Amino acid sequence: MNSYNCPFTDTLTHGGCYGPNAEYIKFISSDDHEIYIKEDYTVVSKTIKEIFQARGVLKEEELNRVVFDQIPSHLLVKVCQYFTFKAHFTSKCFKTVPRFKIDENIIGDLLGVANMLLC
């Protein structure tokens, strides 16, 4: 493994979050928590797609990251859980898809984040 891989991928045999072939993205919340997610899972968000398009291709040593200075970690984690849930249940043929569970206490805040991320 080269020195450009992020700590999260040390246990993986492929991937990484650096350079043009990065498979993972490092999200940083407003309270400085780091969350790693597969880039493919984030296609649900038009805002994240636009960030990548505006940024262009990463250089080999550049970290694939997005800072969300208005989204606290408890909401960003839930968004990442939704991205993963959506990717899982749309990648396979399921007869029924379970409901994605959301704590009632964060519904309003999460709706605001979903609007911000256009997902």
TrEMBL record:
Signal peptide: none annotated. It is found in: Nucleus. Coiled coil: none annotated. Belongs to the SKP1 family. It comes from Trichonephila inaurata madagascariensis. Keywords: Nucleus. SMART domains: Skp1 (SM00512). One of its GO terms (biological process) is ubiquitin-dependent protein catabolic process. The lineage of its organism: Eukaryota, Metazoa, Ecdysozoa, Arthropoda, Chelicerata. Residues 24-85 form the SKP1 component POZ domain. This is Elongin-C. GO terms for cellular component: nucleus. Pfam families: Skp1_POZ (PF03931). InterPro entries: ELC1, SKP1-like, SKP1/BTB/POZ_sf, Skp1_comp_POZ.
